[in-house]
Design a protein that fits this description.
- The protein is built from 2 helices and 19 strands.
- By secondary structure, the protein is mainly β.
- The protein folds into 2 domains: 200 residues, Galactose-binding domain-like (Jelly Rolls), CATH 2.60.120; 78 residues, Immunoglobulin-like (Sandwich), CATH 2.60.40.3080.
- Strands 1, 2, 4, 5, 7, 10 and 12 form a 7-stranded antiparallel β-sheet that branches. The chain has a 5-stranded antiparallel β-sheet with strand order 3-6-11-8-9, with no helix packed on it.
Amino acid sequence: MRSTLLKCFLLFVIALSAKAAATGQTLIHYWHFNNIDTTWADHTPTETILKADFSIIDVNKTGVLYKTQPGVSAAYASYADLHHPGGSDTAVINWNSHMGQPTGWTFRARNPSDSMELLLFMPTTGYKNLALKFATETSSAASGMKYQLYDYSVDSGSTWHTTALSKIADTTITTYDSVTIHFSDVADPLVMNNPKFVFRIRFSGQDTGTSGNNRFDNFSLEGTPTTAVKNVNASAHVCDLFPNPATNVLNIHTDIAENKTIAVYSIAGQKVLAAEQDGNSIAIPVSTLAPGMYYITIRSTSFSYTTKFSKR
């Protein structure tokens, strides 16, 4: 009887652990657009690449690019700019906000957008179980494009597919809507752990010349590491940071001595410090940081941990 109860308890614990592992997601890339130069609010060339505001992999390998579709005449080229929403839009856009970002600028893809494509360069190196999230709306039922069409590339844009997508299109509305698109590793294993991954949005349904636009905010790509990752939480005492708040040095102690990559990010998602070191105890100099709140990510081959700390 005792053996049966023990087995049932172990199965229950395993089931809970599996559920936690399935739902736990890491923020890989994030665009909130609030730090863009405000000259974008007037007019910007279409071939301008916007790097992510945050990337756990490498900001310089990311990009949002609004460009003419291959084979389309340059006479139909459109452009992107910024929009500052208000009123009822504010609460909806705050969906999928990360790092304490307030509602600010949103990205606006201007007509004639039927000749354009919006590309998101998002390497997935080291990650699987991917999910893309963003808020979107059309400017009006009369002039904004009615449909957004989705596909992706695993070879930097040479070929395009929809096999792994949980949805391939959306009908747009005139108030910001939340969109989540999942990528199936089973349907297409090439979407995971891929440095050449690109997502594409195209537009169709109507076109009223140069008026009208489709708007986007809070693009994020989330996933889980492809390697086995130890479940790290406060009660496990796998990773301790002290003192917190820190003044000159932030000490990190873990029960894992293997080599670790450490990155410190501002509340706006900008990387401000980086280090690579092995051993159980690591000292990170933080005296040059401005007072405030920061994120720190500690990664190795067997675990990953992200938390906040304060600098005074």
